[in-house]
Amino acid sequence: MFYRPEDGHGLPHNPFNAIVTPRPIGWISTRGASGQDNLAPYSFFNAVAYVPPQVMFATTSAKPDRGDTKDSLGNIRETGVFCVNIVEYAMRDAMNVTSGPWDKDVDEFEKAGIAKAECESIACSRVARAPAGLECRLTRVVPLEGRSNFAVFGEVVGIHLRDDCLKEGKFDVTHFQPLARLGYRDYARVTEVFTLKRPGE
């Protein structure tokens, strides 16, 4: 099968998200200028550089009460900071609650019953029990092709690691089993890993 996206795929569901998988989930926490906290998951997310450490996520739709975007980017535009919380398998249901189209005045931490903690280097809340949290300062917002598509880049200025996830000096993902986004309504979790050495190592 071959299709051009502009012509449509002819399938019952769009296969694009099922092709680019698995995708890590950035559980983005933000705080607006008014002090209102927000928490929402984004699967167009990844780390993009080592030195200095940088991450990105993309937001691809808008809410009526936010103009051309959603609450996360709206808040980031106001304050210039955000925190990326890593989603563990045990928090999948809470994460799903925060994906809802809630009003901008709704605190998703409270809605999903998630304990929050204050970040150390930025004015923002984070998921207290997340396996890891990346405190970020906005570096740029890049408009993408299409309506309400934006890529948000940030420099990581502080990193939280949950102590029980450190095993013999390594951050052990199998301990907390990070959640990954697949296509449609499907997810996966990391339960085993294997090692490959690069040529010449």
UniProtKB/TrEMBL annotation:
Residues 18-173 form the Flavin reductase like domain. SMART domains: Flavin_Reduct. It comes from Actibacterium naphthalenivorans. It comes from the Bacteria. SUPFAM superfamilies: FMN-binding split barrel. This is Flavin reductase (DIM6/NTAB) family NADH-FMN oxidoreductase RutF. PANTHER family: BLR2425 PROTEIN (PTHR43812), FLAVIN REDUCTASE LIKE DOMAIN-CONTAINING PROTEIN (PTHR43812:SF2). GO terms for molecular function: FMN binding; oxidoreductase activity, acting on the CH-NH group of donors, NAD or NADP as acceptor.
